[in-house]
Amino acid sequence: SEQRQWPCSPSPSSPCSLAGAVARWQGEGRVAVWLHVPILQSRFAAAAASQGFAFHHAEQGSSTLTLWLGEGPSRLPGYATHQLGVAGAVLDESTGKVLVVQDRNRTINAWKFPGGLSNPGEDIGDTAVREVFEETGIKSEFKSILSIRQQHKHPGAFGKSDMYIICRLQPSSFSISFCQQECLRCEWMDLNELARTKHTTPITSNVAKLLLYGYREGFDKIDITMREFPAVYTGVFYKLYHRELPESYRNIT
Amino acid sequence: SEQRQWPCSPSPSSPCSLAGAVARWQGEGRVAVWLHVPILQSRFAAAAASQGFAFHHAEQGSSTLTLWLGEGPSRLPGYATHQLGVAGAVLDESTGKVLVVQDRNRTINAWKFPGGLSNPGEDIGDTAVREVFEETGIKSEFKSILSIRQQHKHPGAFGKSDMYIICRLQPSSFSISFCQQECLRCEWMDLNELARTKHTTPITSNVAKLLLYGYREGFDKIDITMREFPAVYTGVFYKLYHRELPESYRNIT
After folding, report:
1. Which residues lie below 8 Å from residue B163, measured CB to CB, with a gap of 6+?
2. CB contact under 8 A, B157 and A81
3. What is the pLDDT of residue B106?
4. Where, per UniProt, does this protein localize (chains A, B) (predicted)?
């Protein structure tokens, strides 16, 4: 496929020159064309659209358009399809209480775990710890993943899919100072009560029951734990989450 | 915030009218403006950019721009941050062999589980089953999630993050007919061998060891299982993945 910064010719009224180029690329057997258009030159996006191009994605100061020239439907990769929300189930093991909030704007009268959308480039556990601190003032440490949910055509995700992960966090501070903009209420609630109350969402209720099971019978019953591995080419480390694997199996050779 | 289809005035040379509108919205105390611009009218994206707007996202035939008018940094939600890749670890329990492929274009001489990017709106298990079938011709059924990996600034994701999930699948057909475009090789490999070979990626090796542990000592040791729940408002069902929760805890009231 052909990657280029358009325009080759700076005239805004030059769809014909693009049409000629597209015909040439097709003749050369290229299967796709990618156009990168700076936002201030967006009139070229309109000219390209009239030649069959469509937006692949856009962010901040530029857009990327594609035109599929190959046979059959486009085999070009899509753009990001999911937003990621992360919540923290912060359990004070000394009291059996868990940190819960009621949103100011959304689900009314429903206790939930504090959380929010991950920032670009942010690891799952870091999002949980940051959101818990921003919403409640409680400092905590990531212990494990408890649950993963996937929803599609999510109204809060501009029609994209939503991945929602709840993490188990261990608190290192206990005095609540909650964000009045986001939360109506925030408290340490007995985990037994959260597992039984009707004033919550199905997912919170379910994860509260799971957390209660772990609190009573050992967190090894509920945790999806994290390990770090080097990426194949870059050497950068990444985090892999799975069930605990005994040493005897980790060291098989 | 203000949502509108621009232009109110159809003149391409009307940045001044937008500037006036922005000043009025700011005077009214609005904190943000969203503009939806059809691709053929993209010259208005350029005019809006000269007034401080930037792309929030774009797809196919339209782009969405935002301008933050509130105090401090923008608190507007971002767009989708992750692509989702799903692979299938298909284990034939009767032989102890697992389905592996070598990619034609990427990691050379490394055995991997077949998989690929999820389509928009597709559930995790469905992506695994579809990709396994497309790459290898093997039919299978989703059993559980085995692992989750998150990587950032992913070269194959246009700089966005990548979530990569490996599922455990049970085969219902066994005769391989692999895709020559994508795969160089495809075979049923002894799971003991995959857990030990150097000709694989760290993540595949690790998940092979995990699968071997489950094969020998019970899949309940490794599975992250799926349950369905109704969404709060819509009544649509969604899938929640977590460790097995005993009935006695599910039914707490």
Report:
1. A82, A84, A163, B82, B83, B84, B85, B148, B149, B150
2. no
3. 67
4. Cytoplasm; Nucleus; Mitochondrion
Q: What is the pLDDT of residues A117-136, one digit of tens each?
A: 999 999 999 999 999 999 99
Superfamily of domain B2-68: Gcn5-related N-acetyltransferase (GNAT) (3.40.630.30)
ipTM for the predicted complex: 0.90
Peptide bond into A7 cis (omega under 30): yes
* CATH code, B82-220: 3.90.79.10
Given this model, what pLDDT does residue A180 score?
87
State which residue of chain B sits closest to A167, comparing Cα positions: B242
Domain ranges, ordered by start, for chain B:
2-68, 82-220
Q: Is the peptide bond before B7 cis (omega within 30 degrees of 0)?
A: yes
Domain A82-221 annotated CATH 3.90.79.10: yes
**Terminal Cα distance for chain A, rounded:** 43
CA distance B109 to B202: 13
Cβ <8 Å between A243 and B249: no
Q: Is the pLDDT of residue B5 over 70?
A: no
